[in-house]
Amino acid sequence: MTKQVPFQLVLEKAEHYKADMTRFLRDMIAIPSESCDEKRVVHRIKEEMEKVGFDKIVIDPMGNILGYIGHGPHLIAMDAHIDTVGVGNMKNWSFDPYQGMETEELIGGRGASDQEGGMASMVYAGKIIKDLGLEDQYTLLVTGTVQEEDCDGLCWQYIIEQSGIRPEFVVSTEPTDCQIYRGQRGRMEIRIDVQGVSCHGSAPERGDNAIFKMGPILNELQQLATRLGNDDFLGKGTLTVSEIFFTSPSRCAVADSCAVSIDRRLTWGESWEGALEEIRALDSVKAVNATVSMYEYDRPSWTGLVYPTECYFPTWKVEEDHITVKTLSKAYQGLFHKDPVVDKWTFSTNGVSIMGRHGIPVIGFGPGKEPEAHAPNEKTWKDHLVTCAALYASIPLAYLSELKK
User: Fold this and answer.
1) Which of 100, 122, 200, 391 has its CA 20 to 30 A from that of 217?
2) Catalytic residue among 38, 148, 231, 270, which?
C-alpha cells in the first residue's frame, strides 16, 4: 500500500527549513564554481547532505555528486547543475556576486537562480522525507552535476553511459518560476572556416581577403535565420553568429583566414545533419569552398577526467499527458490547491542528454526565473525555495500513486 503525501505537513516542514535553505544557498554562492572548477562547492554540498541524513553519498570520477535517499526499486532522480558562468563586467553588478545579497524576500549572487537554488531545495526535500518518514518503494537520487554551463548534458552522458544509472524519470531543477516545464529546443555549436592568402595591405589585389569572403556568408546566414523550422509548443529554430576569428600577419596585411561560430537552436523536427547541410547549401558557402563543421568539447573536469563529445544537444519534450506531467501536477494541486502552469524552457538544460540522447523522461520544476540566468544582479526568491522543497518531497509518493492507476 503506497503511502499518501501529507501535503500540509510537507508544506509546514518546507517553511520551517527556509532559513536553512537560505544559509546553504548563500554558502554555495560564496564559492566561485565555474565549469571545471566545482570541487569546493561539491564538497560543501556533500557536507550538507551528510548533515540532513542522506543514506549514501558518492562523488563519481567526473566530479558529480550523487546523494541517495531510500532503498526502493523505483529510481527517481532530481538534478541541479552546480557550476556557474562567470560574473562578466563587475560594473553591471550593484552587489558582490559572491558575497551576495539578502533581503526578507530575495537572495542575490551568481548561481542564485542558475541554479544552486535548485540544489538547496532538493537537499532539504530529502530532509523533509526523512523527518516525515515518507520513504517507500522508491530510491531518490539527488545529483549535483558539473560542466553544464560548458557542455550541457555531458555530466548525464557520463552518469548514464559510464555509471550505468537509468532513473525512471528525472526532475530538472533549472529555474522555471515554480512552473512545470516539459521540453526545450535543442542546440548545436557550428563553425564556418574560410581560407584566404595574405599580402601587404598596400596592394590587397595580390592576396585573397578571407574576411571579405566571409561577408556574403554572413548576409546569407542572416536570411537563413528567417526561414528555419517552427513547432507549436517549442517555437522557432534560431540561428545567430556568436563569435568571429581571423588570422593575419599584421594590421597592414590582408587576412588569410576567417571563421565564425554559430549558435543554432533546433526546434522539434530539425536535425543536426539538416542544420549543417542547410548552411553547406548556401551559394556563398559553396562559392568560396568554406568548411562547415560541428565543434567538439574535451575540457577536463575538476577531477581531471576527459569525456569528449560533439557539441550537439538534442531537442526534447514529453507529452502533456505524460505520467511525469500528471505526477507533478497532482502534487502541486495537493500542496497549493490550484492548477500549475505547464510550459517550456527557452534555454538549454541537461535534459538534452537525459531525454534527448537517452530517452529517459525529464520534467522541470525549479526556483528562480529564467531571465536571471547569466545576468548581472542574479537573484532568486526565498518563497521559491520553500515551494520547490515541498514539491520535491511530494513527487516520489505522488509518482507511485500514479503508477498504480
Assistant:
1) 200
2) 148
